[in-house]
Amino acid sequence: MNETPNLRILPSADDAVKAEAAAALYRYNVAATGVDDRLPIGAVLYDGSGRALGGLWGRTELGLLFLDMFFLPAHLRGRSYGARLLATVEEAARRRGCRGAVVETSSFQAPGFYIRHGYNEFGRIPFAVEGQARIFFRKQLA
Length: 142
Description:
Layout: H1 15-33, E1 39-46, E2 52-61, E3 64-71, H2 81-95, E4 100-106, H3 111-116, E5 120-126, E6 133-140
Parallel strand pairs: 3-4
Antiparallel strand pairs: 1-2, 2-3, 4-6, 5-6
């Protein structure tokens, strides 16, 4: 390829290009590690009519559970539903051979929840909202 690449800032996400790059990066990671074990993981809480109320989603890869998104509506918080979702996903990750878990959250979201469930902070980065930060947690699963 003798053509000079053209760099552009995108005004919005290009999901197709991002997906293509993610697939190429994953192929690179598999070639470098010899491990091809990425799988989605999650648990969803439904109401009596089958409507999803919230849940926890992530992936397992290279012996780690990566928690990507966790949401419960306000009326369900503080009633052990979050703890049950987390325990369910952690146990499924253990069955897949995961020995650790990683999550990032905002300081105004749920850092106390993760601490109460055995997660330890290993990084914090302030962001543009005064007094707030992204917080990175980890937990040993095995």
